[in-house]
């Protein structure tokens, strides 16, 4: 008969130390890890109480504090929130990059790891399964040009397939037009799309991002009716003899914003722009977004313009700084050459460089950020219902990567229900 072994009736941590089954509840390493984790997660709260405020370093909003209703997602979301809100994060990034360049002559890998994506990990279709962390946050191109790493990583590691993205965009067109409204969609091209010749000769994700880019521009304009501005942007740059994207910022210049406004106005009212007069006005420095990711604080010179839709010498532009997370309303008295129809627009940071010229040429326009549409579809529906025209400006990298939550057909359907209840006759 085999002898049965009975476990002690108490927790192993409470056994005498000499007992063979004794295990400490928290060893020294466990205790150290626990203390570090607590400090990591509470540091942002302590710094907030002391008056320190987090700095947005990347081309996205800071991670929000996770909701207790997220279940286990609350704990997994704490890391991203704590990282974004760490005190002195910006100074730490600057220091790390300075040390890396000084000692090793190369930029610090402030996000991600190797330049070479791992091959063979998790394969189920014969292709490598890429992870977003293998891509650098910044791609240093030729002639000092800097590109946002998401131009590549979002294409190579999309959240939605291109078929799903196209279906989402087409659903938006359907619900808007079903309510009797006009729908316009413009995709702001990535800088790496307009100026691929300034990308480095070799970089992580070159093959997968190039294939995804080609497929994106082959299908999306044709299948969704999106306005493809690539040719117009290059034509304007050639005419003005200067790039239409900043060399160290991910956005286009004011000239890119004006080009978009021209294209949108002409689609609504062909010929309306024939009398517009555009002239250079003030210049001012703008803090470039990409160098921050390398621990650098650099600016680009911004050339702004005056715009008189009636062809006079009276500038009709008006600049109101906004990230559109709170809707921005721009109302202007009607003049010849203006689009006199209420327009409601969903736009991101590229529209910031167009908003002064939208104010100059549209009598009634309100702009809201794409993320806010998914956060509160009912409120977004009420806002869009105020317009006779609904216009979307979306960035290529976020569309190609399926990163906009509003691409979910359920969001479009919720907004569409509000629009259907307030049709345009």
Outline of the structure:
One of its GO terms (biological process) is alginic acid biosynthetic process. The chain has 425 residues and is of the alpha/beta class. Helices cover 39% and strands 13% of the residues.
Explain what this protein looks like in three dimensions.
Residues 138-271 form the AlgX/AlgJ SGNH hydrolase-like domain. With 425 residues, the chain is an alpha/beta fold. The protein has two domains: 30-84, no CATH class; 144-421, no CATH class. It has helices at 28-49, 73-84, 89-104, 150-156, 162-178, 191-194, 206-224, 230-240, 254-268, 349-352, 355-361, 370-375, 377-384, 396-400, 409-421; strands spanning 138-140, 146-148, 182-188, 227-228, 277-287, 299-308, 328-331, 343-347, 364-368, 389-395. Strands 4-3-10-8-9-7 form a six-stranded mixed beta sheet, sandwiched between helices. A two-stranded antiparallel sheet has the order 1-2. It has a two-stranded antiparallel sheet with strand order 5-6. The longest helix is centred in the N-terminal third of the chain and has 22 residues, at 28-49.
Helix segment count?
A: 15
Question: Pairing-aware structural class of the strands and helices?
Answer: alpha/beta
The residue ranges in which pLDDT falls below 50 over 5 or more consecutive positions are 110-128
| Distance N to C terminus | 89 Å
What would the principal axes of the Cα set say about the shape?
Answer: globular
Helix fraction bin: 25-40%
Largest sheet: 6 strands, mixed
Strand content: 5-15%
Strand arrangement within the widest β-sheet reads: 4-3-10-8-9-7
Rg from Cα:
26 Å
What is the total tally of β strands? 10
**Total count of domains:** 2
Element-level helix/strand string: HHHEEHHEHHEHHEEEEHHEHHEHH
Q: Average pLDDT, to the nearest integer?
A: 83
